[in-house]
Specification:
Low-confidence stretches: 1-28, 82-89
Number of helices: 13
Oligomer: single chain
CATH superfamily of the largest domain: Cysteine proteinases
Number of domains: 2
Largest sheet: 8 strands, mixed
Shape: elongated
Order of helices and strands: EEHHHHHHHHHHEEEEHEEEEEHEEEEHE
CATH architecture of the largest domain: Alpha-Beta Complex
Mean pLDDT: 80
Structural class: alpha+beta
Number of strands: 16
Length: about 375
Amino acid sequence: MDVCGVNNSFVDLKPLGSQQREMSQTDWKVHAVVILKSLLLAVGIALACASFYFATIVHPMIAAATPSVPFTLWAVLQMQPPSLAVPIEKTIPGFRNGGANCWLNSALELLVNVPAYRKIFEKLLHPQTEDEWRARFELQPFVKTYENYHEEKKEASPKALETQPLREWVSKVFPVISSNIMEQEYPSYFLEYFFKNLDFERAKIEKVVTRDDSDNPNNKEVSYEDCNFLQVHLHEEKENVTAKDMKEILEDSFTSISEVENERYTTVTTKSHFVSTPEDLTIEVLRTDNKGKNTHLQLSHALEIDVSQEHFRQEARYRCDGFISRAGSSDQAGHYYAFVLIDGQWWKANDSRVQIASLEEVERELASSSTILHYQKV
């Protein structure tokens, strides 16, 4: 299959069979049960062989009954498979980072785990409309990644998947992204390419531009735009401000006022609102100043946000179910990792290292480091 003249049939992200993965607590428990069963069986056989000798120094009934104890314990453990002998702490697959692919890996963790994105992939796996078939054609490597990920997720100890082939493919169809594994990129670039191929899913925003034109007081222009994701700015406007409310900066993002030099008008006001209330939101939080340095402002009340009728057509509540964090002093010098909510449990996916995250850690990361957030309407 060719997309934009690039053959994408080679992009098949398989688990790293050669990659050695540290055993999880589950692995240790399962192996311990297997070893215990082997020891019980060996002890039982040894006692059975020695029972004739024991019969000469103790009561024959005691000598005959002694081997039955390890044999009974062995039989109890043998009745159930090792995976059921102890509670299993299931984990999820990660993605391998052989250089500077953390931005790609974190974006993929969102795409393959957040329920709203998974619904999109299910449509691409079973396309019904012309738009869905076209998107399936354009995003075939994404779909293959999704399939491989969830096949690996079924394993007791899932392995990490390689992502460099996907990066190389995307760099050919979306040249703003470099194929060099040692170059850092932005997760938003990757998501932008994904979203721009989903005409059947994108929300619409109405934008009204007003100019303070003295000759024409009602000088307004109305336009409609696709909304892949919202951008909000988190920067210092006042001294001694250490945190800003997520709802506040989200609402502010729908209105902008700019000063211009013009003979007829000097101020341009832009107001936006959704054409209909979206079921989910993807928000990019810009935490850097004009020089690309972190502002160190905290983002407060980001786990749940209540939005107004003015910008969303109706009052609604949205809850975060996945986000990307960035550690580092600037957007070009840092490390990206993801948090995803799966069946009520938060997970931290740091490339191939995946572990359970506490709610306290999630709230702390949302406040200090989150850069791309997904919200679902509740």
